[in-house]
Design brief:
CATH architecture of one domain: 3 Solenoid
Strand content: over 45%
């Protein structure tokens, strides 16, 4: 059973990810050359980390909105409650500046200094509505002190919240310890997030970066380390996330590292994720999720909406539970009052390529739609995954429940009947140059396909525990060729189900395979042909 060589592949991909981050182009300076016209200390802010500076900082922001320039945080520690950004304002944090969030929940119920009415809901630490041309830059730190807000039944402040804003730039800063999500961008356009470092392990729902129903977003060269989902796209509306690029990021999560969903009212269109390193956090214990994170890549549509034209490539994954999880479900949550439940969404045109993973659990990867609502047109190419293994014959024969309305999670089906990929209700899927290995002997097939049509498997390289490495159940229209099997097995392919038909095995029989296929009782005699 071949398990060596994985580290070389992963290290090569890690190098590609880091190189991609390094080659993003000539990065803009962190803002040191911008005019520091509105030093918050000139408005009364004290750099002692104890004096509440909310009023002074808000005054500086309001003045900057009128006169231009930027709001400058000099070296020191500054404590405040929440503030509201204004159009045209850049906040510039000196490398030695730390902006601390108030630990009093009462401060999050107060209006901005220049506004009278109390807010209808508690506020985020830095927030903005209907703005244009805003930025937070520099090498300093924003620490929201979210460990002061751990009660699940009470409001826990987000770090940054921007709604219906255009031309946002977040660059170079360090974000730490929100009460819940660190960043939430909603209905925003032309968002540029680059070279930031996020560490969010202070409370519950500690997401790292949430992009919600936005258009034209770039997330470049960031380090995101979070307890809950790290980089996550959502559509808490009927408006999809569109034209989003994630490039050259280092991502760590106790839950899902890079995720589209769970909230998916509008869905996700034209999304690109590339040259990223994914792992579980090494220095923290999970609040949500697991110490060994849940999914490396999770693509989900469960509330209607459409997932289309998604590309994930050049990804190195280490030490998560499940490297790849694709799910079309029917939780059917509406996001508008009195809106009827949405119909089942659509999931099509997904490309996954040059992905390597090691140290992942024995759960297996799943690509699952629903009866009558298949996932469509998925291509997996140049994939190399090494699993823990240890699956049993009982695991191989498990009946996997449909669970259409369940919350989508990579572990939702338990240990799968395949140690590599379990595919069900899929139309149009190709595996090309895919290597699936195990650290311990595993008595499950590498790939199981159930109710799948238009299937191609080309150059599959597997380590297996003496069973047919590929199992088809009611598969219609498939071609299998160029397979390498490292162990002695009775057959390359096991065919089951009266709906199996038009299956072709091309090429010569692998050396360690006794016969190309065997057929279960009930499968048509002419289901498989060879050439």
């Amino acid at each position: 059973m071949r398990t060596h060589g994985m580290g070389v592949v992963v290290n090569a991909l890690l190098g590609a990810a880091l190189l991609g981050a390094a080659l993003l182009g000539a990065r803009a300076a962190r803002g040191q050359d911008e005019p520091a016209r509105h030093n918050i200390c000139q408005f009364g802010a004290q750099a002692d980390g104890a004096s509440l500076c909310t009023h002074a900082i808000q005054q500086a922001i309001d003045r900057c909105a009128q006169e231009g320039g930027c709001v400058y945080f000099p070296p020191g520690k500054f404590l405040s409650g929440p503030v509201r950004l204004r159009s045209g304002v850049t906040i510039l944090l000196d490398d030695e500046a730390t902006w601390l969030g108030s630990r009093s929940r009462d401060d999050y119920n107060l209006p901005p200094a220049s506004e009278g009415a109390a807010p209808k809901k508690p506020r985020a630490f830095i927030e903005g509505y209907d703005l244009e041309g805003i930025a937070i830059r520099g090498g300093g730190t924003i620490d929201i002190n979210g460990d002061a807000f751990k009660q699940k039944d009470k409001y826990r402040p987000k770090g940054l919240y921007f709604e219906n804003c255009r031309r946002i730039r977040i660059e170079g800063i360090h974000l730490r310890n929100a009460g819940s999500w660190m960043q939430h961008y909603r209905f925003c356009e032309d968002v540029d997030i680059r070279d930031i470092a996020v560490f969010n392990h202070a409370s519950y729902n500690n997401d790292g970066l949430d992009v919600d129903s936005c258009r034209r977003v770039q997330i470049l060269g960031c380090v995101i380390d979070s307890d809950d989902d790290a980089i996550v796209l959502k559509s808490l509306s009927q408006r999809p996330c569109e034209d989003v690029t994630v490039l050259g990021c280092v991502v760590r999560s106790h839950c899902n590292a890079i995720k589209l969903g769970t909230e998916s009212g509008g869905g996700f269109v034209r999304i690109s994720v590339s040259a990223c390193e994914v792992s579980s956090p090494a220095k923290t214990k999970a609040i949500y999720g697991r110490d060994r994170g849940l999914a490396g890549i999770a693509l989900e549509i469960v509330d209607g909406g459409r997932l289309e034209d998604v590309t994930v490539e050049d990804i190195a994954i280490r030490g998560v539970s499940v490297p790849i999880f694709l799910r079309l479900g029917n939780r059917a949550r509406p996001y508008v009052k009195d809106q009827p439940k949405p119909d089942v969404g659509t999931f099509r045109r997904v490309r996954l390529s040059r992905i390597a993973a090691e140290g992942v659990s024995n759960t297996g990867c799943s690509i699952t739609g629903l009866p009558g609502h298949p996932i469509e047109d998925v291509r997996l190419e140049d994939i190399r995954l090494e699993f823990d293994g240890g699956g049993t014959a009982d695991h191989a024969q498990r009946e996997v429940p449909e669970r259409p309305e369940a919350y989508p999670e990579s572990t939702m089906f338990g240990v799968l009947p395949a140690y590599g990929f379990y595919c069900r209700h899929v139309k149009g899927i190709a595996f090309r140059n895919v290597t699936l290995l195990v650290r311990e002997r595993d008595e499950r097939p590498a790939i199981v396909c159930d109710d799948v049509s238009d299937l191609a498997i080309d150059a599959l390289d597997v380590g297996t525990g003496g069973v047919a490495p590929v199992r088809f159940i009611n598969v219609a229209g498939a071609e299998l060729q160029g397979c390498i099997v490292s162990d002695q097995v009775p057959a390359l392919l096991r065919v089951e189900g009266e709906g199996s038909k038009n299956i072709t095995i091309a090429g010569e029989k692998p050396q360690d395979v006794e016969t190309l296929f065997d057929r279960a009782a009930g499968a048509p005699e002419d289901a498989v042909s060879t050439r």
